């Protein structure tokens, strides 16, 4: 598979604060990547940097062979980056349908196709953003990103605060996007086992740089290594949190 995205020695952060330190990795066409690590190691900053929301001090971000390090965020969206932020950022005073159409771009993902993919959004199409449950808001955030017809979907903590049944439904939807629709994705997720189940490859960050890279299946099959990289007992804690459910 040809290279779609590459971070080449990127040093980036906010103001004078460095969060990413000589970060390098690449992503192939149609590939999915889990970004793992303890809190505060730069996972969200990686996505923010890809969307042009941080200060890049050194290195380069290349998208389909083009250096986009200095591109504005809207230009990146136009080039095929779809962003699903951790806060979802659903427009509360717009209906579901208005949320989906307000930033739509031409392409194969249209309103009918998003409604087919997320039937619940069709049922709730006349409801306002602030009338939706957490799971429905997350579906809407993903659906809205799909309406920009992205080549790469960026998901920041997509399962945060959701009940187990909704987590399972959304995880299956993300897998379908990758496996059946051929959409590349980068997933930042607090539950590492879940993130590994949804992706082809994984990288582990520590202090803003990659300290481990492996196929997701290999890392999932080695819980001792995963616990060592992410913190003692973290995989068991993630599984317990998933079983307990969320708001």
How would you explain this protein's 3D organization?
- The protein has 247 residues and is α/β, with parallel strands linked by helices.
- The chain contains eleven helices and ten strands.
- It has a single domain, classed as Rossmann fold, CATH 3.40.50.
- The protein has helices spanning 43-50, 73-79, 96-101, 111-117, 119-123, 134-146, 164-179, 192-197, 216-220, 223-230, 234-244; strands at residues 3-14, 17-28, 32-36, 55-63, 66-67, 81-84, 152-156, 184-188, 201-206, 209-215.
Determine the strand fraction and express it as a percent band.
25-35%
Radius of gyration: 17 Å
Number of helices: 11
CATH superfamily: P-loop containing nucleotide triphosphate hydrolases
- CATH fold call: Rossmann fold
Main sheet: strand order: 6-7-8-3-9-10
What proportion of the residues is helical, as a percent range?
25-40%
Query: CA-to-CA gap between the ends?
Result: 40 Å
| CATH class categorisation | Alpha Beta
Largest sheet: 6 strands, mixed
At CATH level 2, the architecture is: 3-Layer(aba) Sandwich
Query: How many β-strands, per DSSP?
Result: 10
The number of domains is 1
Mean pLDDT: 91
Task: Present the secondary structure layout.
Blueprint: E1 3-14, E2 17-28, E3 32-36, H1 43-50, E4 55-63, E5 66-67, H2 73-79, E6 81-84, H3 96-101, H4 111-117, H5 119-123, H6 134-146, E7 152-156, H7 164-179, E8 184-188, H8 192-197, E9 201-206, E10 209-215, H9 216-220, H10 223-230, H11 234-244
Parallel strand pairs: 3-8, 3-9, 6-7, 7-8
Antiparallel strand pairs: 1-2, 1-4, 4-5, 9-10
